[in-house]
Amino acid sequence: MIAPAAARDPWYLLPQASRDTAPQLPSGAPIAARLVHGAYYAAAAPIRADIRAGNNSRRVGIAFDQLDARAIVPLRLSRRERGSGIDYLVKLEASKGGVL
After folding, report:
1. If pLDDT is split at 50, 70 and 90, which confidence band does 20 have?
2. Kind and range of the H or E element at 63?
3. Is the pTM of this model over 0.90?
4. Please, how many CA atoms are within 13 Å of residue 95, restricted to the half-sphere of its CB?
5. Are 55 and 47 in contact (CB under 8 A)?
6. Are 51 and 92 in contact (CB under 8 A)?
7. Which contacts of 35-39 are long-range, i.e. CB under 8 A and separated by 24 or more positions?
8. pLDDT tens digit sequence for 53-73
9. What is the mean pLDDT of residues 70-93?
């Protein structure tokens, strides 16, 4: 169930998953990066922009909470884990491109 505070927050997820095919990550990518990468394609434009900018903002956290509330198996990433996943993806995007 969604907490009352979360119910007042704007909705940050797409109503239907993005039809974009998520690009493959390197086989050695950390699990936090894989989870953030998957969630990236379920998030609305403002959240994607925050992730691309490397921001582990409050609204990114809210989007992950919203995703967890609806997931069969919640991600339950801590702020630190989410941040390390975002950092990895931003660095990978800067070096290779085509990730986000």
Report:
1. low
2. helix 58-70
3. no
4. 8
5. no
6. no
7. 35/75, 35/77, 35/85, 36/77, 36/82, 36/85, 36/86, 36/89, 37/85, 37/89, 37/99, 37/100, 39/63, 39/64, 39/67, 39/75
8. 999 999 999 999 998 888 888
9. 92
